[in-house]
Amino acid sequence: IKHGPKQHATLTVNGQPVSERNFLGVTRNAKRTVAVSEWLGVTMQEGDNTLVAEIIQDGKLVQRLERHVHYSGVPVRAALVPDKSVLIADGKTRPLVAIRLFDRWGYPARRGMIGRYTVAAPYEPYQSQEDLQKNQLLAIGPREPVYTVREDGLAYIELAPTTTSGQVAIQLPLQSDTQQKLSVWLKPGNRDWVLVGIANGTTAFN
């Protein structure tokens, strides 16, 4: 919260004062014409939150600032993002399926959240192949690959290279034990041609 050098600020979230343990302190510029009060690790509830800062000087309220912040929840719905996907089956490229996840309020899911998924045969997650190469003990039992939510609710599912074009079925376990199925189409990539010639002729003894 930016305020005057002789002022101080108080902060509430949803009507509750923020703990003093979260207050980092006040920083002033070199000319001491402006100050900034900082809080760290402020607890918010999933969904909409109302933050209110009151600027105080000489015991009097100078200004009241109100902001509304949405703290995204767990994913409940997913949608394909074709323009950020790489859907080619050329045997060399790792197909990349981009999805965007949303919370129950329709906002992008929170960054850093992790979820699991499965891919129907004959396609395979690249993460599974990579894990098996790193640790052969993982071959003892199945292991579901995971995705990580990035900025704006985006997550990427990377598949192992394949030459089999067609429909890929991806199953996403979401909140409340619900499952969502997404389908994407892998198109065949450009492949080198092999030309075979047959020659007919006669050869002499020499």
Name the quaternary structure.
Answer: single chain
Secondary-structure element order, N to C: EEEEEEEEEEEEHEEEE
Proportion of residues in extended strands:
35-45%
Major sheet description: 4 strands, antiparallel
Shape: elongated
What share of residues is helical?
Answer: under 10%
Describe the structure.
The protein has 206 residues and is mainly beta. The protein is 4% helix and 43% strand. It has one helix spanning 126-134, and strands at residues 2-3, 8-13, 16-17, 23-28, 35-39, 47-57, 60-71, 77-80, 88-89, 96-102, 114-116, 118-119, 146-148, 154-158, 166-173, 179-188. A 4-stranded antiparallel sheet has the order 3-2-6-7, with no helix packed on it. It has a 4-stranded mixed sheet with strand order 9-16-15-12, with no helix packed on it. Strands 1-5-4 form a 3-stranded antiparallel sheet, with no helix packed on it. The longest helix is centred in the middle third of the chain and has 9 residues, at 126-134. 13% of the residues are buried. The model has no long low-confidence stretch (mean pLDDT 89).
In brief:
By secondary structure, the chain is mainly β. The protein has one helix at 126-134; strands spanning 2-3, 8-13, 16-17, 23-28, 35-39, 47-57, 60-71, 77-80, 88-89, 96-102, 114-116, 118-119, 146-148, 154-158, 166-173, 179-188.
Give the topology.
Elements: E1 2-3, E2 8-13, E3 16-17, E4 23-28, E5 35-39, E6 47-57, E7 60-71, E8 77-80, E9 88-89, E10 96-102, E11 114-116, E12 118-119, H1 126-134, E13 146-148, E14 154-158, E15 166-173, E16 179-188
Parallel strand pairs: 9-16
Antiparallel strand pairs: 1-5, 2-3, 2-6, 4-5, 6-7, 8-10, 10-14, 11-13, 12-15, 15-16
